[in-house]
């Protein structure tokens, strides 16, 4: 399962979502700007408040790091 923690105004969040879509990867988006429960969950997992945060098969990736995303995705395909 892939989760992505985002905000509405984050350009890197948009890039990360577009990248996942280009790979036909289903993901659950959690907007931490409007969803306090998601924000608290993200901070608990990462100890920080920057987005995007991708959670791929329980692996946390902070920021749009394509190489790390690809590596994590290879582990779930």
From TrEMBL:
InterPro entries: GLR_AS (IPR011767), GlrX_YruB (IPR011911), Glutaredoxin (IPR002109), Grx-like_ET (IPR051548), Thioredoxin-like_sf (IPR036249). It holds the Pfam family Glutaredoxin. Residues 2-61 form the Glutaredoxin domain. It comes from the Bacteria. SUPFAM superfamilies: Thioredoxin-like (SSF52833). Gene3D superfamilies: Glutaredoxin. NCBIfam families: GlrX_YruB. This is Glutaredoxin-3. The lineage of its organism: Bacteria, Bacillati, Bacillota, Clostridia, Eubacteriales. The gene is grxC.
């Amino acid at each position: 399962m892939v989760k992505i923690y985002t905000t509405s105004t984050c350009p890197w969040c948009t890039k990360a979502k577009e990248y996942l879509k280009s790979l036909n990867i289903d993901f659950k988006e959690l907007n931490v700007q409007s969803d306090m429960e998601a924000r608290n969950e993200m901070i608990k997992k990462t100890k920080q408040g920057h987005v995007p945060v991708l959670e791929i098969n329980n692996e946390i990736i902070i920021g749009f790091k394509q190489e790390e995303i690809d590596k994590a995705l290879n582990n779930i395909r």
